[in-house]
Write a structure and sequence with these properties.
This protein has a three-stranded antiparallel β-sheet. Strands 4-5 form a two-stranded antiparallel ribbon. The protein is globular. It has nine helices and five strands. By secondary structure, it is of the alpha+beta class. A hairpin with a 2-residue loop joins strand 2 and strand 3. The longest helix is centred in the first third of the chain and has 17 residues.
């Protein structure tokens, strides 16, 4: 049988950046507050003792969350710096489209639509400033609600969300052989314009 500590670790992993409120964790694990504190203490010690783990458990504002250890901060920072220079991956574009058309939306709701965990690609979009957490959903765990940012509009050359293409307006010519649509055909145009302006181009 899976231990309560393993269940705690799994719940915190899937919660991602949002973490989980202590009260909700106690309810999910079916343990009292004191028992939850002890489980968290054990998991904290387990992660701290394992030099091959880059994670730590943090207790912030009555919530628990898994975060990366300060010792791996440099390599994690390098990853995000490198990612800033790359074009958006297919999974990131999928998540961005879901947020653009369904906002505000939680990460779990995005996962349900895609059928896979979206935590990594969603964090990349947050780092790149295209989406942001704005408010909490009134649901167990009070997960973050994600919306697109003003930079999202700039990046794709929109003045407002009203400029997003209507799904029903897509013609067959815009659909690929795989049956996919490119909702962001003009992606990055604003960045190109900005870069051109900085170089003095007309």
């Amino acid at each position: 049988m899976v231990s309560k500590m393993a269940q705690l670790e799994a719940l915190l992993y899937v919660a991602g950046d949002s973490g989980i409120a202590s009260a909700d964790l106690g309810e999910l694990l079916q343990v009292e507050h004191a028992a939850l504190r002890e489980l968290a203490k054990q998991l904290t010690a387990k992660l701290a003792q394992n030099q091959d783990s880059g994670l730590q458990l943090q207790h912030i504002n009555h919530s628990y969350k898994l975060t990366t250890r300060p010792e791996v901060g440099e390599v994690v920072g390098s990853f995000f710096q490198k990612d800033m220079t790359k074009t958006l991956s297919q999974s990131a574009l999928e998540i961005l489209a879901i947020i653009a058309y369904k906002q505000p939306i939680t990460r779990v709701e995005i996962d349900a639509i895609r059928g896979v965990n979206s935590a990594g690609a969603l964090q990349t979009l947050v780092w790149r400033g295209l989406v942001k957490a704005e408010g909490k959903k009134d649901a167990p765990g009070h997960p973050n609600l994600y919306v697109t940012s003003d930079y999202f509009l700039q990046y794709f050359g929109y003045q407002s969300l009203a400029d997003l293409p209507l799904i029903e307006d897509f013609e067959e010519g815009n659909i690929s052989a795989e049956g996919e649509l490119d909702l962001f055909a003009a992606k990055g145009q604003a960045d190109k314009n900005l870069a051109g302006a900085q170089k003095g181009e007309q």
